[in-house]
Design goal:
By secondary structure, the protein is of the alpha+beta class. A five-stranded mixed sheet has the order 2-1-5-3-4, with helices on both faces. β1 and β2 form a beta hairpin. The longest helix has 22 residues. The protein is globular, with a radius of gyration of 16 Å. The termini are far apart. The structure holds FE2/S2 (inorganic) cluster (2 copies). The site of one FE2/S2 (inorganic) cluster (FES) has 11 residues, from loops. One FE2/S2 (inorganic) cluster (FES) binds next to loops.
Length: 163
């Protein structure tokens, strides 16, 4: 067994889990954060993407024990109170989802992507960056549109913060 202490969405939590427990199962089964989804068992779909110490990771590829001591952000922690994160708002505005199964992972990947590129994204880059996230419903078009719109909106804030 492993003692795991992590900060999830700003709250420190400790749990004792089996050594083989994956971060995604710690989040879902032990902490009740079921917004992070499991869509495959081959590390391909990206439905399980969360941020660990500010970087997007597929939480089905990380042992919970290995995440001990880290800061994890899940889709549940992205909004500020009742105000959606700009990427969440853009997905809603641009119909970037249908069944919604891939959406939490898509959004967490998109937030990371926009941050890494300082909001400077074009369609080709977004499509390339999304290779690790699968969607079976939308055909990706509106997802790409939503990410580009959010990137444009967030770019202003990033520039202001850098000045
Ligand atoms: S559940 Fe993690 S990549 Fe599919
Ligand atoms: S919206 Fe259904 S899998 Fe993406």
């Amino acid at each position: 067994m492993a003692n795991v202490t992590i900060t999830v969405n700003g709250r420190s939590v400790s749990r004792q889990v089996e050594d083989r427990t994956l971060l995604v199962h710690l989040l879902r089964d032990h902490l009740g954060l079921t917004g992070t989804h499991v869509g495959c068992d081959t590390s391909q779909c990206g439905a399980c993407v969360v941020h660990m110490d500010g970087v997007a990771v597929k939480s089905c590829t990380v042992l919970a024990a290995a995440a001990s001591g880290s800061e994890v952000l899940t889709i549940e922690g992205l909004a500020t109170g009742s105000e959606l994160h700009p990427v969440q708002a853009a997905f809603r505005e641009h119909h970037g989802l249908q069944c919604g199964f891939c959406t939490p992972g898509m959004i967490m990947s998109a937030v990371d992507m926009i941050r890494r590129h300082d909001g400077q994204l074009d369609e080709k880059t977004v499509r390339h960056e999304l290779e690790g996230n699968l969607c079976r419903c939308t055909g990706y078009h509106n997802i790409v549109k939503a990410i580009l719109a959010a990137a444009e909106e967030m770019r202003g804030g990033m520039q202001q913060a850098a000045e």
